Amino acid sequence: PSSSVPAQACQDCTCSNEIDPSSGLFKIVCEFQQCNENCDLGYEYVETNLYDCCGKCVQKQCILNLNGTKQLLNEGETWSSPENMCEHYTCMRNGDTLTALNSQIICPHFQESNCHPDTIQTAANGCCKICVEIDKACKLISMKTLVSRHGCQSEHEVEMPYCEGSCNTFTKYSEAAAAMEHSCSCCKETRSSNRTVDLLCLNGGKITHTYMYVEECGCGHTECTTTAGLRARKKRSSMLL
């Protein structure tokens, strides 16, 4: 009694103290093996094959333990702590093992004194600082060009200033709205006036043409869409005709 008895696979059999009336021998009691399906964090219990009594725990995720807080990452997933967006952890596979590899973002040199006021912001990577540099800010650019229209052309080049430069544009996650927040602005005229110029035609005639003369430039809010950018470029092209 109480001794282990050889049995079929995946069963544990024991000689009991109970007597079988028909044979007068101790009964053999069998039960199927109990598989431990409780796996550690990041592991999952899976069945292996028909010949194994129990499955096994297989690693499915990387486990990060940062300052007592555990973070799970799927294979190929990259994660950064909100407190340090310059540090990244990526879950990579090496054979049967998943390991979280650490990497750091190295930001280019940032000189705040070179920035245009109120344009300093965090880059899309959430780590580095960027801004519109003073020499690249929105400003009025002088230009002279011949004006042509309907086969007629100005006798001399006409002064036709235009706006060029960078403005403050960003895309970031808004916790309040639980969505991405977009803010776009473009360099455009803030003050202009209409001017006229005489155009000489091939038949010896003359026509008067009115065009927009840009006097001042600045950053103005615009929609963050591709079509908005195309409209702005087309508008500028028409001004030069």
UniProtKB/TrEMBL annotation:
Its main location: secreted. The keyword Nucleus does not apply. Disulfide bonds join 152-201, 163-217, 167-219. Keywords: Disulfide bond, Secreted. It is found in: Secreted. Gene3D superfamilies: Cystine-knot cytokines. The keyword Lipoprotein does not apply. This is CTCK domain-containing protein. Residues 131-225 form the CTCK domain. It comes from Xenotaenia resolanae. It comes from the Eukaryota.
